[in-house]
C-alpha cells in the first residue's frame, strides 16, 4: 500500500513488482539454503540457522522503515498539506512550489473533498453502501486476493519435494534441485512481470495468469492420472514450470497492489489489510488441506484448482477494471461513475486519462493565447 500511495501513476506497477521480485529472490535463497541444510539433518543447526538468518533481514527492514516519510496522500488526508507537498517534491525531484507538485497536491485535495461530500457523513467503513462504492471495491480487492491463492500454486511451492519424491520417483537430492530450479524460474518470471506491468496493464496480466494456471492444473491432473507411464510423469514436470511462470506474472504481488489501487483513500488501510489477511488465510488453508486432498482424491485434487482458476479468469475479465497509468484519484472517479458492478470495466476503458486531459487543456490554453496575440497584433 505504501509503495502504491508514494509512486507516480506511470511507474507504480514497476515499483510494487520490484518489491515482489526481491520477495521471490528471498524464496530462492531459502530454497537453496534448505537444500544445503538437507545434508545436516543430524545437527540442530539445520533448523536453528534458518530462523536466525531470516531475523537479520527483518532488522534491516525495520531500520529502513524508520527512515521513510509518510505517504503524501495520508498526510493530505490528516490535513498536513505542507508536509504532503514536501514529500511530493522529494518524490518528483522538483521544487515544492513547482507547478507539477502543486497540481498533484490539488488533485489529491479535490479527491478528498469529493469523498467527503459524496460519502454517508464521511463513512470510513469499507462495507458502506456509498456513492463511492466502498463495498464494491472491498469485494473486488478481497476477492482478487482469495482467487489468486486458490489457483493452487502453493501446492507446488509447499509440496514440490514430496510430489517429486513420492509421485514422480525422484531421489531426495534431485527433488530439491528441481525445486530450487523452479524457484529460480519463478524469480525470472517475476522480473518479466515487472517489465510488463506498466506496458500491458494489471487486467491482462491477471487474466493471462489465471488462464495459464487453469491450463497447468488441468494438464497436471491428466498427466498425474497415469504416473505409471514414465513419459507422462516426465511431461508433468513441464507444467510445474508453467504454473510457476504464470503465477508471478499476474497473481503473486499484482493482487496486493490492485487492492491498494482500487481502495478509496478513506478506507485504503482497512481494505488492503483485509485483502492481505484473506490472501494469507487462504494460503494457510491450502497448505493444511492439500495433504488430505492428495491422500483422498489423488490426481483429481488438481481438477479442483483448475476449476477455480477458470472461475478466476472469468471473474477478472468481467469485474476488474484496468488501472494502468491512472492516478489513484482517477481510479476513484471510475467507481464514482459506476452504476453497477458490471460498469467499471467499460467506464475504465472509455474514461480519458488525466495526462490526456491536461495535454488538451494545455493545448487549448496555448491556442487561446496565440489567438489573443494575433488579435492584439492586428489592432
List the helices and strands and how they pair.
Elements: H1 2-6, H2 12-37, H3 45-65, H4 72-77, H5 81-92, H6 99-118, H7 134-149, H8 153-167, H9 172-196, H10 202-224, H11 230-250, H12 254-262, H13 268-297, H14 301-319, H15 328-337, H16 344-350, H17 354-378
Write a concise keyword list for the protein shown above.
mainly alpha; 77% helix; 17 helices; 379 residues; 2 domains; Growth Hormone, Chain: A
Describe this structure in words.
The chain is an all-alpha fold. The chain folds into two domains: 2-68 and 128-333, Growth Hormone, Chain: A, CATH 1.20.1250; 77-118, no CATH class. Helices cover 77% and strands 0% of the residues. The protein has helices at 2-6, 12-37, 45-65, 72-77, 81-92, 99-118, 134-149, 153-167, 172-196, 202-224, 230-250, 254-262, 268-297, 301-319, 328-337, 344-350, 354-378. Helix 2 runs antiparallel to helix 3, helix 2 packs antiparallel against helix 9 and helix 7 packs antiparallel against helix 14 (301-319). The radius of gyration is 24 Å and the shape is globular. The N and C termini lie far apart (57 Å).
Amino acid at each position: 500500500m505504501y509503495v502504491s500511495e508514494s509512486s507516480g501513476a506511470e511507474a507504480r506497477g514497476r515499483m510494487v513488482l520490484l518489491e515482489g521480485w526481491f520477495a521471490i529472490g528471498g524464496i530462492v535463497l531459502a530454497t537453496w539454503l534448505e537444500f544445503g541444510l538437507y545434508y545436516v539433518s543430524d545437527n540442530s543447526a539445520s533448523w536453528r540457522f534458518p530462523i536466525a538468518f531470516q531475523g537479520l533481514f527483518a532488522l534491516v527492514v525495520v531500520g529502513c522503515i524508520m527512515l521513510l516519510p509518510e505517504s503524501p496522500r495520508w498526510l493530505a488526508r490528516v490535513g498536513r498539506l505542507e508536509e504532503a507537498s514536501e514529500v511530493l517534491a522529494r518524490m518528483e525531484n522538483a521544487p515544492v512550489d513547482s507547478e507539477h507538485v502543486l497540481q498533484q497536491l490539488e488533485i489529491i485535495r479535490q479527491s478528498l473533498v469529493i469523498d467527503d461530500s459524496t460519502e454517508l457523513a464521511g463513512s470510513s467503513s469499507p462495507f458502506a453502501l456509498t456513492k463511492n462504492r466502498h463495498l464494491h471495491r472491498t469485494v473486488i480487492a478481497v476477492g482478487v486476493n482469495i482467487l489468486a491463492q486458490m489457483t493452487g500454486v502453493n501446492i507446488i511451492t509447499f509440496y514440490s519435494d514430496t510430489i517429486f519424491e513420492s509421485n514422480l520417483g525422484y531421489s531426495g537430492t534431485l527433488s530439491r534441485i528441481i525445486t530450487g530450479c523452479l524457484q529460480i524460474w519463478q524469480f525470472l518470471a517475476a522480473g518479466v512481470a515487472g517489465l510488463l506491468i506498466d506496458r500491458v496493464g494489471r487486467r491482462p496480466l491477471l487474466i493471462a495468469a489465471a488462464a495459464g494456471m487453469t491450463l497447468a492444473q488441468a494438464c497436471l491432473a491428466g498427466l498425474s492420472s497415469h504416473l505409471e507411464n514414465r513419459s507422462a510423469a516426465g511431461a508433468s514436470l513441464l507444467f510445474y514450470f508453467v504454473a510457476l511462470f504464470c503465477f508471478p506474472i499476474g497473481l503473486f504481488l499484482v493482487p496486493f497492489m490492485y487492492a491498494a489501487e482500487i481502495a478509496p483513500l478513506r478506507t485504503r488501510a482497512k481494505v488492503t489489510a483485509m485483502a492481505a489477511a484473506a490472501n494469507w488465510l487462504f494460503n494457510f488453508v491450502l497448505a493444511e488441506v492439500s495433504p488430505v486432498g492428495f491422500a483422498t482424491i489423488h490426481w483429481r485434487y488438481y481438477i479442483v484448482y483448475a476449476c477455480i482458476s477458470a472461475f478466476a479468469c472469468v471473474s477478472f475479465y468481467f469485474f476488474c477494471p484496468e488501472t494502468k497509468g491512472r492516478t489513484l484519484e482517477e481510479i476513484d472517479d471510475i467507481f464514482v461513475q459506476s452504476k453497477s458492478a458490471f460498469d467499471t470495466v467499460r467506464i475504465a476503458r472509455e474514461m480519458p486519462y488525466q495526462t490526456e486531459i491536461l495535454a488538451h487543456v494545455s493545448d487549448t490554453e496555448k491556442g487561446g493565447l496565440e489567438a489573443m496575440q494575433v488579435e492584439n497584433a492586428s489592432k
